Predict the 3D structure of the following.
Amino acid sequence: MPRTAYPSLYQINTRVVLNELGLDLNLGRQATLDDIPDSVLNGIAALGFDWVWFLGIWQMGPKSRAVSRSLPNLMAEFQAELPDFTVEDVTGSPYAVADFSVNTDFGGPAALARLRARLKQRGLKLLLDLVPNHVALDHPWIESHPEYFISGTEADLAREPRNYIRIETPAGQRILAYGRDPYFDGWQDTLQLNYRHPGMRQAMQAELLKIAQQCDGVRCDMAMLILPEVFQRTWGEKSLPSDGTPPDDSQFWPEAISKVQAARPGFLFMAEVYWNLEWTLQQQGFDYTYDKHYYDCLREQRVDSILGHLHADLSFMQKSTRFLENHDELRAAAVFPGPIHKAAAVLTYLVPGLRFFHEGQFEGRKSRVSIHLGRRPPEPPDAGLQEFYRQLLDCLRRPEVRFGQWRLLDCHSAWDGNNTFQKFVVFYWQDGSRRLLVAVNYGSTWGQCYVPLPAEGLRDRRILLKDLLGTARYDRQGNELANMGLYLDMPDWGCHAFELQDL
């Protein structure tokens, strides 16, 4: 079987989905990974997915959960998200990891191994989380290796109570830093690991190797935070190891990725990354990096920036993770209303990169529920949106879109003085004789343009253009398409995916 050039990923909020499954199956308890019906996995495979990401699979602890249940700002958020909220709905953040072993609530390591085997039977690979920057307040390293953490002083605690905490350890009290990024206060259910401590780095590599035995790839949370230049800018002299160990200022990711992939060839690394550091992490060995900039351009409807981004080097685009929503972003149906949603989805998922979808996206869910919660409000599915995504996923399964060559096409004014062509984004996929032309009017007014198509396979032929996202069909002369171009007359936020067939 050939390697998929552009895979698709389906993200599942494990805690929420298992809670709902327990109710649907009348189990009288939360479901475990073993309770996930084969029909669910069959359905994911049938949609053409290559990867399934089970978010938040690791063991959490009561100390970090208690923090989630105590912070007024979080409690206000929870009450807004769940009208019938109770404190028992707060399960804690899955990114406050107490131990990189499968949560006992979900059936533990044996249940994960069985789930992975069932996924493999269906040609699906398993993606899990790595949280490298911080750990939960319950993590055993706090007692066994307090030197692995960023330390503070009494003055730090008095001045920045949102960034430091007093912790009891077998060696006495210590003031340790909460995990954070340089632009916000700390996450008070976590403690910050010190990536200048050689022992901590070796311990995290060992954890990563352990995780790699349980899955086929990892999504690395906030992967850019542990780059030496970012880490030292965030922590300064406080990052000098508290036990006097000489600091290690080498890059963590290249060595860690190399070791894991030597032990597990083909193991995938995907980075959550921001701040224009995507290329940096790709160069350090990541297979894919989040492309939040492209998402922001779509959300802000900046067509010039969208086109500029699509002119990036193809090697960068091929390693970009394309999404319209995920557990950190607002739901797409809430951000992109009506036809804008469909236009944005076409521009997201039919360009090169890893195609990343979020459970509930196809049904048009609008409520973004905090990852600290184990429950979400019910929402009726949007049948029209479901049909659109069915059509879009059919397009993604086509060989030219999975394995083919992609190129961005130039649009021209349909007549003098008509500038609506500037809102068009048009591109072309080809794999041998199979061709797909994608056109989107990403603007709020009706627009027109001409777009010349690649000449190969068009000269001296009649071509049928059949829209896979609608009912449009056009019979055109190939010479005309290659010379003057295809004339497009499209409504605001209109989109086509034309299959080209010889007549």
Remarks:
- The domain at 402-502 is CATH 2.60.40.1180 (Immunoglobulin-like).
- The mean pLDDT is 96.
- The two ends are 31 Å apart (CA to CA).
